[in-house]
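User: For this week's homework, look closely at the record that follows, marking any run of repeated tokens, and judge whether sequence predicts the tokens.
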Amino acid sequence: MKNGKILMMALAMIVLFACGNASDRGFKQTDSGLKYKFHEQGGGEKVQLYEILKMDMVYRLKDSTLFDTRLNDIPMFLELTEPEYPGDIYEALAMLSVGDSVTFIVDAADFFMITVGMFELPPPIREGDQLYFDIRLLDALDEDGFMVEQQRIMEEQMQANERRADDEDGLRDAFLREENITVEPLESGLYFIESARGEGPKVTPGSTVSVHYEGRLLDGTVFDSSYERGEPLDFIVGMGQVIPGWDEGIARMHVGGKAMLVIPSHLGYGDRGAGALIPPFSTLVFEVEVVDMQ
């Protein structure tokens, strides 16, 4: 396998979404400068070059988590190759045995510029920052073992998605009852609940609107919020720049108006889901406010 760098690139571009704390206290250091702290040790033989490592992985920058495999219950797979420079993540992984739980600290600039191969540091990372990798090594596989494991995970994901598809209507109906929402869905299946009719002009297809919003799952988990960023989203209505439920719902509003959109998955992200926080077949709930139109 030669996909290590590709996987690292995918990890590096994940949007920040959680918080944690990091400290150098209690860490040991190798001759190369790599800092590490074992929390548990499996006691087996160390991993070998070109084995494919199956692991839970979190990596953090100061108080922000950039990636966490546990959120989707899908482990990380990465082929162990030769280190590219002293103290890199591959040197760190070569220290492990199956069952180990450990935290490594690597230089953030070296990781992004050398291991990932980026041309410049992505915000908010700066020279001198450190990355904290929290890793639990679950298994070390050869090619055949990796293919078997991938097939097993794929089958489990398909079964999980089938259950989500079967459960979506019931979960949405329960949410509507709990929220005392009695409006009938539109022909598309979208629930449009207007809480304040805007005094400005009606939104028209082809216009550019600025929309503040908060998006959450039916269980209340917030997955995105323009309010937290302090900046509304601009998009052209009816051009497919947003999910279909947004195009349809926002087009029913006036500037200054507020509404709740309850969006079934077929008008949202469907059987794919989105990112780490939106599973497949998820009904989405958005509180939206049209703040401007051009």
Summary: DSSP finds six helices and 14 strands in the chain. The mean pLDDT is 88. Residues 103 and 134 are 4 Å apart (CA to CA). The first strand starts at residue 18 and ends at 19.
